[in-house]
Amino acid sequence: MVAGSSLISRWLFPVIAALAVICVTAGPMQSTSWAQDEAAEPAAEPAAAAAAAPAADGAPATDDTAEAPKKLDALTWTMTALSYYFFIFLLISVIFVALFVMNMLNARRDNVVPLHLVESFEACLEENKVQDAYDLAKEDDTFLGKVLSAGLEKVSLGYDKALEAMQEVGEEENMKLDHRLSYLALIGSLSPMIGLFGTVDGMIRAFSVIALGGSTPNPAQLAEGISTALMTTLVGLAIAIPAIASYSILRNRVDRLALEVGITSEGLMSRFQTVGRK
């Protein structure tokens, strides 16, 4: 799991930076396409007038040029409104789900304070098999196993040295869990900012239609920019709210389990209090 966390930390920030560049560059490109569409509309008017001329002379009008407006379903309209932000939010959503599952697995009691380790370790100490207890803790890759093995390595130097070693390893393991959780907090902070970026971008598109149109603006183009502004804000908040909530819940759970590791490990090692004392 540590390798997975380091892998995420390597490519998460470059991907976010690349997406930001896409946001900045794709906006002017889409604005250029709008300008081309607006320039093509006056050229289409003579053609429409020429097509309507036979109808004015008495010729029967055809229905080829009169197409019914296409109706979009909710998903298609959402993707259209989000524009290229759809792929940004999709990527963030996938990363959020992966991080949530990874942290949920890390915060399980069996991965932090396994009951079988506590029982086996205590049984070995009851039979005065310290080496077997050390081997048992050393082979266990959980939070508690690492703390107990660190304590037994230093127990020959005295109980106080063993406690110091246990505290150092406990702080290190707790920091690793907090480090993995911090990515959830990052997504919770980053998603609304991307939504705000999309809001400003969409409003600029809408006002550019008014500023560059020169006449009565096309309502469809106005609605396109406004829908992008509102939809990006909505999706950004929809991702941020569960990310922040899951971070808070998992953070409390990790703190509670870390405290339980400290209490359990000190209780198991309490029989060595007289070691190194005269």
UniProtKB/TrEMBL annotation:
Q: What is this protein called?
A: Probable tolQ protein
Keywords, comma-separated and alphabetical:
Cell membrane, Membrane, Protein transport, Transmembrane, Transmembrane helix, Transport
Name the residues that span the membrane: 82-101, 183-206, 226-250
> Any idea where this protein resides?
Cell membrane; Membrane
Source organism (scientific name): Blastopirellula marina DSM 3645
**Segments forming domain MotA/TolQ/ExbB proton channel:** 142-260
Q: Which domain of life is it from?
A: Bacteria
Tell me yes or no: is Cell membrane among this UniProt entry's keywords. Answer: yes
Q: How does it sit in the membrane?
A: Multi-pass membrane protein
Looking at the UniProt record for this protein, which Gene Ontology cellular component terms does it annotate, in alphabetical order?
A: plasma membrane
Does this entry carry the keyword Transmembrane helix? yes
Q: Which family does it belong to?
A: Belongs to the exbB/tolQ family.
Q: Which GO terms describe its biological process?
A: protein import
